[in-house]
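Notebook entry, structure prediction.
Reason for the run: the old model in the group folder had no record of what sequence produced it. Starting over properly, with the input documented here first.
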Amino acid sequence: MFVMRQTNYAKWAFALLLLVLLSNFLVYRSPFSASIVPDDTFWLVAGSLVDFAVVAPLLLLASFRLNAKQLIGFIAAGLITARLIIPALYFEPFALLFYFGLAIEVLVLAAELALLGLLLIHIPGIRRAMAERAGSPLFTLFPAVHGKIKPNPLINILLSEALAFYYAFFTWKRRPVEDATSITLHKNTSSIAFTVMLIHAIIIETIGIHWWLHDKSALLSIVLLVLNIYSVIYFIGDIQATRLNPLTVTNGNLNVSLGLNKRISVPLDSIGAVRWGAEPEADALEFVAKDFEETDPEVVINFKISQQAVLFFGKTRPVSQIALKVDNPEKLKQLLSSITRT
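New structure, fully documented this time:
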Protein backbone atom coordinates (compact mmCIF):
# COMPACT_ATOMS: atom_id res chain seq x y z
CA MET A 1 0.00 0.00 0.00
CA PHE A 2 1.24 3.50 -0.82
CA VAL A 3 1.11 6.07 1.97
CA MET A 4 1.58 9.71 1.01
CA ARG A 5 4.12 11.66 3.01
CA GLN A 6 2.44 14.32 5.16
CA THR A 7 4.58 17.25 4.01
CA ASN A 8 4.11 20.18 1.68
CA TYR A 9 7.09 18.94 -0.33
CA ALA A 10 5.23 15.70 -1.01
CA LYS A 11 2.26 17.57 -2.47
CA TRP A 12 4.51 19.70 -4.66
CA ALA A 13 6.42 16.61 -5.79
CA PHE A 14 3.17 14.88 -6.75
CA ALA A 15 1.98 17.95 -8.68
CA LEU A 16 5.33 18.07 -10.49
CA LEU A 17 5.00 14.35 -11.28
CA LEU A 18 1.65 14.95 -12.95
CA LEU A 19 3.16 17.86 -14.89
CA VAL A 20 6.07 15.70 -16.11
CA LEU A 21 3.74 12.93 -17.28
CA LEU A 22 1.29 15.34 -18.92
CA SER A 23 4.00 17.27 -20.74
CA ASN A 24 5.52 14.09 -22.18
CA PHE A 25 2.10 12.87 -23.27
CA LEU A 26 1.36 16.18 -25.01
CA VAL A 27 4.71 16.13 -26.81
CA TYR A 28 4.02 12.78 -28.48
CA ARG A 29 0.23 12.37 -28.50
CA SER A 30 -1.31 15.82 -29.00
CA PRO A 31 -2.45 17.53 -32.21
CA PHE A 32 0.66 19.74 -31.95
CA SER A 33 3.13 16.85 -31.93
CA ALA A 34 3.99 17.21 -35.60
CA SER A 35 5.20 20.81 -35.09
CA ILE A 36 6.93 20.12 -31.74
CA VAL A 37 8.89 16.94 -32.44
CA PRO A 38 12.18 17.69 -34.29
CA ASP A 39 13.53 15.66 -37.19
CA ASP A 40 16.25 14.17 -35.01
CA THR A 41 14.30 12.66 -32.13
CA PHE A 42 17.17 10.80 -30.42
CA TRP A 43 17.84 13.34 -27.66
CA LEU A 44 14.16 14.18 -27.22
CA VAL A 45 13.34 10.52 -26.61
CA ALA A 46 16.39 10.14 -24.37
CA GLY A 47 15.13 13.02 -22.25
CA SER A 48 11.69 11.47 -22.03
CA LEU A 49 13.21 8.17 -20.91
CA VAL A 50 15.04 10.02 -18.14
CA ASP A 51 11.71 11.59 -17.15
CA PHE A 52 9.88 8.24 -17.04
CA ALA A 53 12.62 6.02 -15.58
CA VAL A 54 14.44 8.45 -13.24
CA VAL A 55 12.57 11.70 -12.58
CA ALA A 56 9.08 10.19 -12.19
CA PRO A 57 10.16 7.41 -9.76
CA LEU A 58 12.14 9.94 -7.67
CA LEU A 59 9.11 12.25 -7.53
CA LEU A 60 7.00 9.26 -6.46
CA LEU A 61 9.58 8.53 -3.76
CA ALA A 62 9.32 12.14 -2.59
CA SER A 63 5.51 11.91 -2.54
CA PHE A 64 4.97 8.44 -1.08
CA ARG A 65 6.69 6.07 1.32
CA LEU A 66 8.17 3.42 -1.00
CA ASN A 67 10.47 0.50 -0.33
CA ALA A 68 13.33 -0.52 -2.64
CA LYS A 69 11.27 -3.16 -4.45
CA GLN A 70 8.48 -0.70 -5.19
CA LEU A 71 10.95 1.89 -6.44
CA ILE A 72 12.55 -0.64 -8.81
CA GLY A 73 9.07 -1.64 -9.99
CA PHE A 74 8.23 1.98 -10.78
CA ILE A 75 11.49 2.41 -12.72
CA ALA A 76 10.59 -0.62 -14.84
CA ALA A 77 7.01 0.62 -15.21
CA GLY A 78 8.41 3.97 -16.36
CA LEU A 79 10.31 2.30 -19.20
CA ILE A 80 7.19 0.39 -20.25
CA THR A 81 5.01 3.51 -20.04
CA ALA A 82 7.52 5.40 -22.17
CA ARG A 83 7.17 2.75 -24.87
CA LEU A 84 3.38 3.08 -24.79
CA ILE A 85 3.45 6.89 -25.09
CA ILE A 86 6.39 7.41 -27.43
CA PRO A 87 5.64 6.29 -31.03
CA ALA A 88 7.43 3.09 -32.05
CA LEU A 89 9.40 4.84 -34.81
CA TYR A 90 10.94 7.28 -32.33
CA PHE A 91 11.53 4.63 -29.67
CA GLU A 92 13.30 2.18 -31.97
CA PRO A 93 16.91 3.09 -30.92
CA PHE A 94 15.94 2.40 -27.29
CA ALA A 95 13.89 -0.78 -27.83
CA LEU A 96 16.25 -2.76 -25.60
CA LEU A 97 15.28 -0.61 -22.60
CA PHE A 98 11.63 -1.57 -23.06
CA TYR A 99 12.48 -5.27 -22.87
CA PHE A 100 14.69 -4.59 -19.84
CA GLY A 101 11.78 -2.93 -18.04
CA LEU A 102 9.46 -5.73 -19.10
CA ALA A 103 11.90 -8.33 -17.74
CA ILE A 104 12.02 -6.56 -14.37
CA GLU A 105 8.22 -6.46 -14.17
CA VAL A 106 8.06 -10.18 -15.01
CA LEU A 107 10.54 -10.91 -12.21
CA VAL A 108 8.52 -8.81 -9.75
CA LEU A 109 5.33 -10.60 -10.83
CA ALA A 110 7.04 -13.98 -10.45
CA ALA A 111 8.14 -13.02 -6.93
CA GLU A 112 4.57 -12.03 -6.02
CA LEU A 113 3.22 -15.30 -7.44
CA ALA A 114 5.82 -17.19 -5.41
CA LEU A 115 4.59 -15.35 -2.34
CA LEU A 116 1.03 -16.43 -3.11
CA GLY A 117 2.25 -20.01 -3.50
CA LEU A 118 3.92 -19.74 -0.09
CA LEU A 119 0.62 -18.53 1.36
CA LEU A 120 -1.21 -21.55 -0.07
CA ILE A 121 1.41 -23.91 1.37
CA HIS A 122 0.93 -22.43 4.84
CA ILE A 123 -2.89 -22.58 4.82
CA PRO A 124 -3.10 -25.64 7.18
CA GLY A 125 -0.76 -23.96 9.67
CA ILE A 126 -2.66 -20.68 9.38
CA ARG A 127 -5.95 -22.42 10.15
CA ARG A 128 -4.43 -24.07 13.21
CA ALA A 129 -3.05 -20.73 14.41
CA MET A 130 -6.48 -19.10 13.96
CA ALA A 131 -8.13 -21.92 15.92
CA GLU A 132 -5.62 -21.50 18.76
CA ARG A 133 -6.41 -17.80 19.00
CA ALA A 134 -10.12 -18.64 19.38
CA GLY A 135 -11.52 -15.36 18.12
CA SER A 136 -13.24 -13.79 15.15
CA PRO A 137 -11.47 -14.24 11.77
CA LEU A 138 -11.51 -10.46 11.53
CA PHE A 139 -8.94 -10.36 14.34
CA THR A 140 -7.20 -13.74 13.98
CA LEU A 141 -6.52 -14.03 10.21
CA PHE A 142 -3.87 -11.31 9.85
CA PRO A 143 -1.81 -12.31 12.94
CA ALA A 144 -1.99 -15.99 11.95
CA VAL A 145 -0.74 -15.26 8.41
CA HIS A 146 1.94 -12.81 9.55
CA GLY A 147 3.19 -15.44 11.94
CA LYS A 148 4.02 -17.59 8.90
CA ILE A 149 4.76 -15.00 6.20
CA LYS A 150 6.38 -11.60 6.42
CA PRO A 151 3.75 -8.80 6.01
CA ASN A 152 3.40 -7.73 2.39
CA PRO A 153 0.98 -5.26 0.72
CA LEU A 154 -0.22 -7.84 -1.82
CA ILE A 155 -0.83 -10.45 0.90
CA ASN A 156 -2.71 -7.88 3.00
CA ILE A 157 -4.97 -7.00 0.06
CA LEU A 158 -5.71 -10.67 -0.63
CA LEU A 159 -6.46 -11.31 3.04
CA SER A 160 -8.83 -8.32 3.10
CA GLU A 161 -10.62 -9.63 0.01
CA ALA A 162 -10.81 -13.11 1.57
CA LEU A 163 -12.47 -11.62 4.66
CA ALA A 164 -14.98 -9.72 2.50
CA PHE A 165 -16.01 -12.85 0.61
CA TYR A 166 -16.01 -14.96 3.78
CA TYR A 167 -18.42 -12.62 5.57
CA ALA A 168 -20.55 -12.10 2.45
CA PHE A 169 -21.09 -15.83 1.69
CA PHE A 170 -20.18 -18.04 4.66
CA THR A 171 -21.49 -16.39 7.83
CA TRP A 172 -25.25 -16.43 7.39
CA LYS A 173 -25.75 -19.26 9.90
CA ARG A 174 -23.72 -17.50 12.58
CA ARG A 175 -25.42 -15.46 15.28
CA PRO A 176 -24.07 -12.18 16.65
CA VAL A 177 -22.14 -12.45 19.91
CA GLU A 178 -24.28 -11.34 22.87
CA ASP A 179 -22.64 -11.87 26.24
CA ALA A 180 -21.30 -9.98 29.23
CA THR A 181 -18.07 -9.04 27.43
CA SER A 182 -19.52 -7.65 24.18
CA ILE A 183 -21.16 -4.36 23.19
CA THR A 184 -22.56 -3.46 19.78
CA LEU A 185 -21.81 -0.18 18.02
CA HIS A 186 -24.48 -0.18 15.29
CA LYS A 187 -27.89 -1.17 16.71
CA ASN A 188 -28.89 2.34 17.78
CA THR A 189 -27.93 3.79 14.40
CA SER A 190 -29.04 3.50 10.78
CA SER A 191 -25.69 2.07 9.72
CA ILE A 192 -26.98 -1.18 8.21
CA ALA A 193 -30.03 0.53 6.67
CA PHE A 194 -27.67 3.07 5.07
CA THR A 195 -25.53 0.29 3.58
CA VAL A 196 -28.62 -1.57 2.30
CA MET A 197 -29.69 1.64 0.55
CA LEU A 198 -26.27 1.81 -1.13
CA ILE A 199 -26.67 -1.78 -2.33
CA HIS A 200 -30.09 -1.00 -3.78
CA ALA A 201 -28.72 2.10 -5.50
CA ILE A 202 -25.88 0.09 -7.06
CA ILE A 203 -28.28 -2.60 -8.31
CA ILE A 204 -30.67 -0.04 -9.85
CA GLU A 205 -27.75 1.86 -11.39
CA THR A 206 -26.32 -1.38 -12.80
CA ILE A 207 -29.61 -2.39 -14.42
CA GLY A 208 -30.17 1.06 -15.92
CA ILE A 209 -26.68 2.02 -17.07
CA HIS A 210 -25.43 -1.44 -18.11
CA TRP A 211 -27.96 -1.85 -20.91
CA TRP A 212 -27.47 1.71 -22.13
CA LEU A 213 -23.67 1.49 -21.98
CA HIS A 214 -23.57 -1.95 -23.61
CA ASP A 215 -24.61 -0.43 -26.94
CA LYS A 216 -21.90 2.24 -26.64
CA SER A 217 -19.04 0.06 -25.40
CA ALA A 218 -19.49 -3.60 -24.53
CA LEU A 219 -16.10 -3.80 -22.80
CA LEU A 220 -16.74 -0.77 -20.59
CA SER A 221 -20.20 -2.05 -19.64
CA ILE A 222 -18.73 -5.42 -18.60
CA VAL A 223 -16.01 -3.75 -16.52
CA LEU A 224 -18.63 -1.57 -14.81
CA LEU A 225 -20.83 -4.62 -14.20
CA VAL A 226 -17.96 -6.54 -12.56
CA LEU A 227 -17.08 -3.55 -10.35
CA ASN A 228 -20.71 -3.14 -9.28
CA ILE A 229 -21.04 -6.85 -8.47
CA TYR A 230 -17.86 -6.63 -6.39
CA SER A 231 -19.21 -3.53 -4.60
CA VAL A 232 -22.42 -5.35 -3.68
CA ILE A 233 -20.47 -8.34 -2.35
CA TYR A 234 -18.19 -6.05 -0.35
CA PHE A 235 -21.09 -4.13 1.21
CA ILE A 236 -22.86 -7.38 2.13
CA GLY A 237 -19.65 -8.60 3.76
CA ASP A 238 -19.34 -5.27 5.56
CA ILE A 239 -22.87 -5.62 6.97
CA GLN A 240 -22.13 -9.13 8.23
CA ALA A 241 -18.80 -8.09 9.72
CA THR A 242 -20.55 -5.25 11.54
CA ARG A 243 -23.27 -7.54 12.92
CA LEU A 244 -20.97 -10.38 13.97
CA ASN A 245 -18.11 -8.38 15.49
CA PRO A 246 -19.21 -6.20 18.40
CA LEU A 247 -16.71 -4.53 20.70
CA THR A 248 -15.35 -7.17 23.08
CA VAL A 249 -13.19 -7.12 26.19
CA THR A 250 -11.80 -10.65 26.53
CA ASN A 251 -8.53 -12.36 27.41
CA GLY A 252 -7.03 -9.06 28.51
CA ASN A 253 -7.66 -7.40 25.12
CA LEU A 254 -9.97 -4.69 23.86
CA ASN A 255 -11.18 -5.61 20.35
CA VAL A 256 -13.00 -2.94 18.36
CA SER A 257 -14.12 -3.05 14.73
CA LEU A 258 -16.55 -1.30 12.45
CA GLY A 259 -17.29 -3.54 9.50
CA LEU A 260 -14.38 -4.45 7.24
CA ASN A 261 -12.90 -0.97 7.05
CA LYS A 262 -11.18 -0.57 10.41
CA ARG A 263 -10.35 -2.58 13.48
CA ILE A 264 -7.93 -2.63 16.37
CA SER A 265 -7.01 -5.09 19.10
CA VAL A 266 -5.05 -3.74 22.06
CA PRO A 267 -4.02 -5.17 25.45
CA LEU A 268 -5.93 -3.56 28.32
CA ASP A 269 -2.68 -2.72 30.10
CA SER A 270 -1.67 -0.53 27.13
CA ILE A 271 -4.63 1.80 27.78
CA GLY A 272 -3.50 4.97 29.51
CA ALA A 273 -6.81 6.77 30.01
CA VAL A 274 -10.53 6.45 29.35
CA ARG A 275 -12.20 9.86 29.05
CA TRP A 276 -15.96 10.10 28.78
CA GLY A 277 -17.35 13.14 26.99
CA ALA A 278 -13.90 14.33 25.89
CA GLU A 279 -13.12 15.75 22.45
CA PRO A 280 -10.98 13.40 20.33
CA GLU A 281 -7.78 14.66 18.75
CA ALA A 282 -7.65 15.30 15.01
CA ASP A 283 -5.71 12.09 14.32
CA ALA A 284 -7.85 9.87 16.57
CA LEU A 285 -9.31 6.77 14.92
CA GLU A 286 -13.10 6.97 15.28
CA PHE A 287 -15.39 3.98 15.66
CA VAL A 288 -18.74 5.69 15.16
CA ALA A 289 -21.34 3.85 13.08
CA LYS A 290 -22.81 5.75 10.12
CA ASP A 291 -26.16 7.39 10.71
CA PHE A 292 -28.45 9.71 8.77
CA GLU A 293 -27.62 12.39 11.34
CA GLU A 294 -24.10 13.28 12.36
CA THR A 295 -23.18 11.82 15.74
CA ASP A 296 -20.22 12.46 18.03
CA PRO A 297 -18.08 9.97 19.95
CA GLU A 298 -18.97 9.37 23.59
CA VAL A 299 -15.65 8.17 24.92
CA VAL A 300 -12.00 8.71 24.05
CA ILE A 301 -9.40 6.05 24.88
CA ASN A 302 -5.72 6.99 25.00
CA PHE A 303 -2.91 4.46 24.69
CA LYS A 304 0.38 4.56 26.56
CA ILE A 305 2.20 3.76 23.32
CA SER A 306 0.93 3.76 19.72
CA GLN A 307 -1.01 0.68 18.64
CA GLN A 308 -1.43 -0.73 15.11
CA ALA A 309 -4.91 -0.43 13.59
CA VAL A 310 -5.90 -2.28 10.41
CA LEU A 311 -7.77 -0.24 7.82
CA PHE A 312 -9.15 -0.69 4.30
CA PHE A 313 -7.29 -3.29 2.17
CA GLY A 314 -5.15 -4.31 5.14
CA LYS A 315 -3.37 -0.98 5.39
CA THR A 316 -1.98 -0.45 8.91
CA ARG A 317 -1.80 2.79 10.83
CA PRO A 318 -0.28 3.58 14.22
CA VAL A 319 -2.82 5.26 16.52
CA SER A 320 -2.42 6.70 19.98
CA GLN A 321 -6.11 7.42 20.54
CA ILE A 322 -9.47 5.98 19.52
CA ALA A 323 -12.94 7.50 19.89
CA LEU A 324 -16.05 5.36 20.33
CA LYS A 325 -19.81 5.53 20.36
CA VAL A 326 -21.40 2.34 21.67
CA ASP A 327 -24.99 1.18 22.16
CA ASN A 328 -24.55 0.56 25.90
CA PRO A 329 -22.15 3.09 27.48
CA GLU A 330 -22.80 1.88 31.05
CA LYS A 331 -21.75 -1.64 30.15
CA LEU A 332 -18.52 -0.35 28.60
CA LYS A 333 -17.83 1.66 31.76
CA GLN A 334 -18.13 -1.53 33.79
CA LEU A 335 -15.86 -3.50 31.46
CA LEU A 336 -13.18 -0.80 31.57
CA SER A 337 -13.67 0.02 35.26
CA SER A 338 -10.22 -1.29 36.23
CA ILE A 339 -8.45 1.23 33.97
CA THR A 340 -7.34 4.61 35.27
CA ARG A 341 -9.51 7.48 34.06
CA THR A 342 -8.62 11.09 33.66
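Summary: Residues 182-244 form one domain.
The old model has been moved to the deprecated folder.
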